[in-house]
Design a protein that fits this description.
Length: 420
């Protein structure tokens, strides 16, 4: 499906976020720290340890320990995923067409001035060099867990998060596990197209490659190959988080925030730039909306969602609404500072390229991304909400109408504003 563009009557001459206080790099890092092991909370630390242990056990498989050579082949297998169910459906994900759509969506990258690319490198160097030990450990777990869904538990809260890990390990979420991972659209063709070198390969860079002390635990410096733009890990992480948010709208905002935090991990490791992460958010949003608007995909999605919600409710021993509830003062992913963090990750404080006021153009069907979280709103109301809460225009990667929309779309604030 190709999105047609619908022009909303509202014009964002001055976005409410264009006047918002800018979050500095140290402030963003402190917020990221607040959801990294949840600052020593016993319940969240137990969840973090459960996630890390389950990930390592999944990668190990039948081996006694993880060897570095195993990481490339590590992926969901039985009992975690129900690939037979998905294969039997015969659904065509149209990956090649979606890859080309992603390249077109990110076309504004090729016109960015050198000054933006210079700041792009300076920002990743700053975040990478000043990252805490806890952030680096989280980034390593995120990186090596790319082919699994364990990281999503972080955003579900201790009770639902632990239920999620237990159900996932038992194979009770097999349909969701299969569908979500199959819905990721590879960024490999885009990487070849844009041919942007990774930050640690730029001459005279100051990147610190982080030794692995979390997964393989061999102190081998974490690195990556291939092009840098856009980020494949972030594309996977944001796709997974956004689809899970559609299945568990009770934790919609924390899950979307986890997608943003996952992208931040790539910068902590020094293997991606802010622009790589920003571009992948745009592409993942577009791809998820594309699939959710396809009736054939939606049939699979609804089946997977029902299986997941039934299994989690059983594991919780209570309603999902109750299981997902975490006291506000002890829920870092739902805390007010995460609003500033999410907004920060939309731009990473890169400067505006074009400051001229612009009318927001909303792709028809994009409002499906708010359907699960805001079921009482009409499609028109969801589109209006997307306009009202959008990022100010003109930041890097905002090119034509569709590019600008996906760059400016602020799902965190759209849902938060409607739920107040």
């Amino acid at each position: 499906m190709r999105f047609r563009l619908t022009l909303l009557t509202a014009t964002l001459l001055v976005s409410q976020f264009s006047q918002a206080k800018t979050t500095s790099l140290p402030e963003a890092a402190a917020i990221a720290d607040s959801v990294t092991n949840a600052q020593g909370s016993a319940e969240y630390l137990a969840l973090h340890n459960q996630v890390q242990h389950s990930l390592i056990e999944a990668i190990k498989g039948k081996h006694d320990k993880i060897e570095r050579s195993q990481l490339e082949e590590a992926k969901q297998g039985k009992p975690l995923t129900d690939k037979d169910w998905l294969k039997a459906s015969g659904y065509d994900f149209g990956k090649k067409a979606n890859q080309q759509a992603g390249i077109a969506l990110l076309g504004a990258f090729s016109t960015l001035p050198e000054s933006i690319l210079d700041q792009n490198l300076a920002t990743v160097e700053n975040i990478n060099l000043n990252a805490t030990a806890a952030q680096r450990q989280q980034a390593l777990i995120d990186a090596e867990g790319q082919n699994y869904l364990y990281f999503l538990a972080d955003a579900l809260g201790p009770r639902l998060g632990q239920a999620f890990v237990r159900a996932y390990n038992k194979g009770e979420l097999g349909q969701a596990a299969a569908l979500i991972k199959a819905s990721e659209v590879s960024t490999s063709e885009a990487k070849k197209h844009f041919d942007y070198k990774r930050p640690f390969l730029i001459p005279a860079n100051s990147i610190h490659l982080v030794p692995d002390s979390a997964v393989v635990n061999d102190n081998h410096p974490y690195t990556a190959d291939g092009g840098s733009f856009p980020s494949g890990h972030t594309n996977a992480g944001y796709t997974d988080a956004l689809l899970m948010a559609q299945m568990l709208p009770e934790r919609f905002v924390p899950l979307v925030d986890r997608g943003a935090r996952y992208g931040y991990s790539r910068i902590v490791l020094g293997v991606h730039y802010p622009l790589d992460v920003m571009g992948s958010r745009m592409v993942a949003q577009r791809n998820v909306a594309h699939y959710l608007n396809d009736p054939a995909y939606r049939k699979l999605f609804d089946s997977a969602k029902q299986q997941l919600r039934t299994a989690l409710e059983k594991e919780c021993g209570m309603s999902l609404k109750a299981c997902a509830l975490v006291p506000a003062k002890t829920d870092p992913y739902a805390a007010k500072p995460m609003q500033a963090f999410y907004r920060f990750t939309m731009t990473y404080n890169l400067p505006v390229v074009n400051a001229r006021p612009s009318t927001l153009v909303v792709p028809e069907g994009a409002e499906v991304l708010l359907e699960a979280a805001l079921p009482n709103l009409s499609a028109a109301q969801r589109r209006q909400l997307m306009v009202k809460t959008a990022l100010a225009g003109g930041y890097p990667l905002s090119g034509n109408g569709e590019q600008s929309f996906w760059q400016r779309l602020n799902l965190h604030d759209a849902v938060s504003a409607a739920r107040r």
